[in-house]
Design a protein that fits this description.
The structure holds two protein chains of two kinds. By secondary structure, chain A is an alpha+beta fold. Chain A has 19 helices and 20 strands. The chains are: A alpha+beta, B mainly alpha.
Chain lengths: 540, 337
Amino acid sequence: MKRRDFLKSVSGLAAGALAPTAPAIWSPAKADARSETLLIVSEGGPNNLDIHGVGTNVPGYEVSWNCYDRLISHEMKSGPGGVPYYDRDKFKPELAEDFNIGDMSVTFKLRKNAKFHDGTPVTAKDVKWSLDRAVSVGGFPTFQMSAGSLTKPEQFVVVDDHTVRVDFLKKDKLTIPDLAVIVPCVVNSELVKKSASEKDAWGLEFTKQQTAGSGAYKVTKWTAGTEVVMERNEDWVSGPMPKIKRVIWRMVPQAGNRRALLERGDADISYELPFKDFQEMKANGKLNVVSLPFSNGIQYIGMNVTKPPFDNPKVRQAMAYAMPYQKIMDAVLFGLANPMFGAAKDKPTEVAWPQPTKYNTDMEKAKALLTEAGYANGFETTISFDLNFAGVNEPLCVLVQESLAQLGIKTTINKVPGANWRTELTKKEMPLFTNVFSGWLDYPEYFFYWCYHGNNSIFNTMSYKSPEMDKLIDGARIAAANGDTAAYDADVKGFVDLAFADIPRIPLYQPFVNVAMQKNISGYQYWFHRRLDYRAMAKG
Amino acid sequence: MLTLIGKRLLFAIPSLIGVVIVTFLLTRALPGDPAAYFAGPAATKEAVDQIRKKLGFDKPLIEQFVHYTNDLAHGDLGTSLTTGQPVAAELRNRLPASAELTLLGLVVSIVIAIPLGVLAATRPGSWIDHLCRVTTTAGVSLPVFFTGLVLVYVFYFRLGWSPAPLGRLDVFYSAPPTVTGFYLIDTLVARDFEAFRSAFSQLILPAVTLAIFSLAPIARMTRASMLAVLASDFVRTARASGLSPGKVIVTYAFRNAMLPVITTLSMVFSFLLGANVLVEKVFAWPGIGSYAVEALIASDFAPVQGFVLTMAVMYVLLNLLIDILYGVIDPRVRLEG
């Protein structure tokens, strides 16, 4: 018998006999603490509390987001299903009380009463030092800053104690959004400098272990791989005082146990559960399950266009007609995704991303195209996937394998261990693979710049190069910077059409981020980084 | 006795050196590039190279090895990339958690298995012998993570008797000040009885899981060894001399049957430390097993090397302890040693 069968049988008998017998070991003081504490369970935890650190993982971003302030942040709007969703185009001041965007620079006025966790006031030189740090430490933070054309410390100018100016190197529509992502956080420069050394000029070792920000929460205890405890910063001024006093974030590796903890009411929030669990929890209605599409994200099948047979566009189109799209939606994702296929034939291309292709599963057409390309008897190939996401990738690849077999294409499945996946991607030798890409900045040209541009970034996993495509992408970026809407729209439609006709990667679906929480938890917000923002949450 | 210990420790040195070399080479031979892994989801080739340089993985293997052994000689096991902490400190913090769990599991197992084995041996073919056979077979054929999940399901999810499987203490208790690292002892030292109760109730399910798994070898070995001893001449003589059955079994037979049981115990203890990995995963236990597995998945060299080295040292000490115990139980062994 399997765990799931057990769980199912219980959700059947439900509340009646056994549910309300919560362990009665709380003394009253502890019960109080519990009502002001948010208990989060997830599979993995942070490896570093500072997003500027070497190799900080995604859970680490969540700590940074809640414990540090940025100059600006995004407003909220109502998203799918009425869930608050960050507004890509509207910014609000955070550590800045006011900001003024000029032609070639932006000026920020800092809040005068803002203090770091240790009580020192936040000044313009802290902001400059932090931004200098982000563009200088190398690795991911520096890379992310450069996506908004923020590359040189000279760009950040201290005007007076409470005024900072950021100069633009060139016009770039992504500069302001890039100042609202997680990376440009403001760090307590005096405190960190004390622990900096010659080898570690930016004090990364210090901020790895503790938070030195001015944010709404501060980490009071961190046991790597076990738990993170965060307390509310009572002196926070960059927004309304959060309702949750304390956040305890426990790592529970077993997905089944995370579900049991939620259903017993012991844990408040969990993500990273199998889709089937989310779907079942949604159906039985005891918990709130929020499912929202990844902004600017797509799971796709990529093909290496530098080698036969996938160097032939006809073969690639045949593949796009041979994908078992609907089966993947039903059997792998249990419907928890947006289909990126099967748009109506006469539907005009939109100025948006992601948007569905016009491909559908059509084995006749696939066979015909394959014959035309000279592969009437099929061929042999290998499909690779990242074992870290085996829950989705493995069944997906098996379905693809099954479907391709009907065309005489023999596919071997190659499971790549998570640690090795990046290396394999960088080598760009895998002929056929599935992967996800999603961009923090939600702009079509940003996605295409990383995934389709001929400068061949690591995310152009297909090694796709087309001068025409590059022209359209570069054109859209320039048009966006200059506010030329007509040219921008034409270029975006152009590159989407080209990507679908040339089809070096086959979009399958837009994945969902799924979060399950108790009914008494409110205030969940969707952010581009897809992690939790505790500041808006409330319990009871 | 002291020369025996000294000699034993001396013999352990070559094997430890071997372990250091082999783990170093093996971790380097693992597929996967830690630099690419830790460069994050959006890294360029340059970013990956920058990280590789920072981590020192761009240097030749022999240079890395010299660097590693030098650090090792200074007691520095390196820093884990996944958790960001020094490996030595992490192992020190996590080892008591694993040891407390394994030892308790072993104690529970001994308390059940030895009487069961003795009873089965004294009444072969009776219902208790069959009971012994069935429980041990069932226990050893169930994978530990499965037993663990079933126990969690029944005792936590359905009955609500057991606390949430969230590690060593309930979320709202704070850990006692460290004296031994064993929460059961430290909470008593701190006279925090509520925390003691919490720590103890957290321990029950995982310890029982481990005990169920390790019943079989101990009970079977006790039974077999007791059967052999009970059939020997001196037991017959003792019986013929009119000694009470209790005295025959406990004083004469059992003591002589102990040697193979002790050997089995040391083996069981070692594989329990291995089985721990899965139990720790199921119960979110902050031990060294889950730590090593997570590191392995991320090709994080330092913790894996540290873990294997710690285990090697523990085996050496364990074997030494067993040898000494042999001497205590059977004086003949002492003379030969």
